[in-house]
What does this fold into?
Amino acid sequence: MTALPLNPHLPLGDQRTAPWYGKDILSVRQFTHDDLKFLFGVAHEMRVMVERVGTFDLLKGKILASLFYEPSTRTSSSFTAAMERLGGSVIPISEVKYSSVSKGESLPDTVRSLECYADVIVLRHPEIGSAALAAKYARKPIINAGDGVGEHPTQALLDLFTILEELGKVDGLTITMLGDLKYGRTVHSLSRLLSLYNVKLNFVSPDILKMPADILEELQAKGVPFSQHTTLDAVLPETDVLYVTRVQKERFENPEIYEAHKNTYVINPGVMRPAKEKMIVMHPLPRVTEIGIEFDEDPRAAYFRQMEYGLYVRMALLALVLGKA
Ligand code: ASP
It folds into this structure.
């Protein structure tokens, strides 16, 4: 595989032979096709191990600092579960109002403090570029768990792993992303990652929530075929993966605009009638109203299985950046 760039903050003697040892996970742009193959191979092994033995001691004695400046249910708990299933432990900091951050401590100082106690730091922060800033100051690996409306690389990795495990391939698929494509960071990361494959992308959103121009330009430059729509009808029948997103309430300055668009698309059994029998519906969760619960029993509803795949991908990432692979 192609190794990711070496972490310049680690002493040379610590650059072990494990290919991802000490690496930061900041953006999906750092991965090659071969990296993904390698990562998903390890994630698959993690799945087999969890199914076989549940918990094992690969990261015994290792500590993760889990630093969340924005709300999270799945990302924070799946990183915790991942670390604990590998025999490691976690320092959880999610209520930053009770930490020194509320006293005005800078992000670089907070990460430089946490790395005195932990071997790896998972960071969610409301500002784009915050994970890269933290990585600039930290000696230990930083894993970006969402930087505002920027990226959510570990979500995109687990999304891709879900597609592979559920449909057996990525090449040749038509993937339709639906909802808030402007503020939804998961679709930003996923589109970039999918540009490494031979896929067709459909973007369906209200006009004011379209996929940002810089991402469309990147796709164009890489020759990825895509089209933009405001309704789902025309593209649903050809879709292999329907990736539904929540309208990101917390990113709207004007609540009336959020109210006007929050229910633009709702997936339910009736809407899904023209879709293929062999396809999947994904959602990074949490969902609000964009997928009705009456669709949950449909075998194509993959969003809860997707969460479980996230555990295996995060186990693989932790093991790899801590030099165990
Ligand atoms: N959980 C995802 C995220 O953190 C999706 C969402 O919040 O809508 O970006």
Q: What stands out?
A: Confidence is low (pLDDT under 50) at residues 8-15. The beta strands are 63-68, 89-93, 120-125, 142-147, 174-178, 200-204, 226-229, 241-244, 280-282. The pocket of aspartic acid is lined by residues 146, 152, 185-186, 246, 284-285 (CB under 6 Å). The two ends are 13 Å apart (CA to CA).
